[in-house]
Amino acid sequence: MSTIVIGLSMGLLLFLLAAGLTLIFGMLRVINFAHGSLYMLGAYCAYQIVQTTGSFWLGLLVAPFLAAAIGALMERVALRPVYARDHVYQLLLTFGFILVIDEAVRLFWGLEYKQIAPPDLFSEPVAILGSQVPTYRLFIIGFGALIAAGLFFMLERSRYGMVIRAASGDPEMVQTLGISVSRIRTFVFAFGSGLAALGGVVAAPLLPIELGMGFSVIIDCFIVVVIGGLGNIRGAVLGALLIGMTRALGYTYAPSWVEFLTFVLLIATLVLRPEGLFSRKGRAA
Amino acid sequence: MSLLQMRNCDVYYGKAKTLHDISLDVEEGEIVSLIGRNGAGKSTLIKAIIGLMGLERGERLFDGRDVTGLAPEALSRLGIAFVPENRRIFAALNVDENLRIATVMGRTGAWDLRRIYRLFPRLEERKDTPGDALSGGEQQMLAVGRGLLTNPRLLLLDEPTEGLAPLIVQDLVAAMAAINAEGVAILLVEQNLKVPLKLAQRQYVIDNGRIQWHGQTGELLENQEKIEALISL
User: Fold this and answer.
1) Is the ipTM of this complex over 0.90?
2) Of A92, B82, B131, B232, which sits most exposed with the smallest number of CB within 10 A?
3) Do the beta carbons of residue A275 and residue A54 sit within 8 Å?
4) ABC transporter domain: from which residue to which, for each copy (chain B) (predicted)?
């Protein structure tokens, strides 16, 4: 039972990251290498806010907005001038963001790792079907599912979502309807960055908060996005759960095969269904 | 004063000059057609009018105002609507959403969702159908409806009848006449004279990226042989 809980919570955590990455790719056709750095930034922000105010919840609320503001700035100032150029320039640019953010974090918080505890509310484990399950993991599952549902609602039912889906498919046509696509791009980049930081805050009580944390998670995140189908939110949910469960089951039953299994999934997807296991033609959600 | 004036426009596609010294105007409430064979430069000119292609030289005036430097979204808000070749329906949106997205900017006027559904009842029946699951005729109606919902003063129609069955073309011609009767000026792009002769008061003929002839529909009939030669394959 606890394996399933760990798998689901890992999956939903990955989803928070993958969702932002895939939304940004769908809208901007840019693979944001710095996504992991924004996740790390979210975790450090959470640490700072917990240190200063003692409130995890405040961190959960504030860090995403901070990251969104940074994301908006990155898009406006740096990315926008290079859209017209080859993809390599955009990749290099987002790679540059990693260096800048990592260095800023090092200057501000230093090299030694930080830690925060889960909120008191989740300090006691609960017993489910005879096994002890950390309540914080249950919170991640519930919270992740809530965000996923909210994202679906936003994309499928709201005006914003409608415009984002349309602009992901044909930005020029959206422009000719009087809508400023460059503002949508900034919004989506900021929104995705906020989601990455949200993932960072949620992950912070589980992991050491350190400089390399963005890098290790971004690889899994890319795998999720490729398995789910680039630019596809439904795929991101299912891909994240698949990777989360694979990892959790792997750690329990075949620990030395975990990486192997993950990459076999990735390779199988790329060979058999390169458009992604869960993609539907032309759909953003 | 003309509603739209393109003055001495040069347009480049990459490094190749594709439009040479184009001048064209559309009066308020008028139907004008732009006729030319495949590759003559019709779509490029339409895209230059709506701002999707930049002008290397020349100017664009709308309602007497110089709007040469404006982006497509700004031109749309001023009242130019674009119904592109191949319709470009949003595949990820259903029929209703494909229409509603044109109302997001809130340019209000005579056209609202109810009227579009009255003009094209078929679209209301297919309200919840995904945009990419429509027939060619339905897609064309949807593209026209979407354009109208921005409440334009000028509607650019790029080969609206291409590939459609004669009966559906008839419906569309009737719809265009009805739309024009509401005071919307139309610039109609076609490869042949059939629909332009029925609807338009004035005609432009384009070939090799240059306007080769323009005049009243009556004058076109007098020069029909010469013009057929310009547009035939």
Assistant:
1) yes
2) B232
3) no
4) 4-233
